[in-house]
Design brief:
The chain has 303 residues and is an alpha/beta fold. Helices cover 41% and strands 14% of the residues. The strands form two sheets. The protein has a nine-stranded parallel beta sheet. A two-stranded antiparallel sheet has the order 9-10.
Length: 303
């Protein structure tokens, strides 16, 4: 049986300054009610940032902390000092709060590193032919920044993992191949996300197989094909598509999870899987039902 967590984004938690976010206590309570043993930190400042308070809040809900996330502009030099400070803050918390000891070759906690910060590229999410690629100098600067953030994570005993993401500069197949070649496994692993692979026009099973030896951590989503096709046709940015319901409970969308299960069994992959379902926080009333259904679906097909 795989270790399966969830993340605050399934309750619409994105920017901690968003006035529509649900209270963090609701997220932890509903994650526990749904049967999850672990949760991600979400955006810095949403869950308590004091380690003692965070540890107590998680203990009150029988939850382990699995990962923290940097989700920001990793290209610009002007933003990088903020990212360095954020990496230190997140990893210091991850170091001080207990995580699960479930079997995994490279166990948690993880620092999930995601580039996202260019409005023009965001408008081309899932649209490889339209999306601009980074010029060489900017790509190399992003690589340098990711390597530096990964080094900070390792100082704290946190495993850094790079997460390709719709609307960021690491999204499409050529970009995943390039980042995997530019940053070795000794410095950072990969956190591939089935939903973002699908959104980028890639077959999740094929790409999980391709990078099996680099997969330290997995994110699972499902995608409503009709909403996705409409988003691409209308050239929507990724978050508008999420608000329109492009992400749906596992087993109700277009991703072949029995095939994913068969692949992971073939690979004898052991590790943590986090289910996510990005949504508008004003639709939070549906979160408990959806995260419960997703977990039950995975368990029913053998995860």
């Amino acid at each position: 049986m795989y270790s399966i967590a969830n993340a605050p984004c399934s309750w619409g938690v994105d920017d901690p300054k968003n006035p529509f976010l649900p209270p963090w206590q609701k997220v932890l309570s509903e994650a526990q009610q749904a049967g999850y043993p672990g949760i991600e930190l979400g955006p810095w400042g949403y869950l308590p940032t004091d380690p003692a308070a965070l540890k107590q809040a998680l203990a009150n809900h029988n939850l382990s902390l699995i990962a923290g996330t940097i989700f920001d502009d990793l290209v610009s030099e002007a933003n990088f000092e903020n990212m360095r400070e954020l990496a230190h803050n997140i990893c210091a918390n991850l170091q001080k709060v207990p995580v699960s000891n479930a079997q995994s070759e490279l166990p948690p906690p993880y620092l999930v590193i995601i580039d996202f910060g260019d409005a023009e590229r965001a408008r081309c999410a899932g649209q490889s032919a339209r999306a601009k690629r980074l010029p060489e100098a900017e790509w190399q600067r992003m690589v340098s920044h990711i390597r530096a953030l990964s080094a900070i994570a390792r100082e704290y005993g946190v495993r850094p993992v790079i997460h390709p993401h719709a609307g960021g500069f690491i999204e499409f197949g050529d970009e995943i191949d390039r980042i995997a070649a530019d940053i070795p496994a000794s410095e950072a692993g990969l956190c591939l996300d089935t939903g973002h692979l699908y959104y980028a026009g890639l077959d999740p099973v094929s790409w999980l197989r391709k990078y099996a030896v680099r997969l330290d951590y997995l994110h699972f989503k499902d995608v409503n094909r009709a909403v996705y096709k409409a988003a691409i046709a209308q050239q929507q940015d990724f978050f508008k598509a999420c608000a329109a319901g492009v992400m749906c409970p596992l087993g109700t969308g277009d991703i072949d999870y029995p095939a994913v299960r068969a692949l992971l069994a073939e690979l004898n992959w052991q590790g943590w899987i986090t289910i996510e379902q990005e949504r508008d926080p004003r639709d939070v009333a549906g979160s408990l039902k959806d995260v419960t259904a997703s977990l039950h679906y995975l368990r029913n097909i053998g995860f």
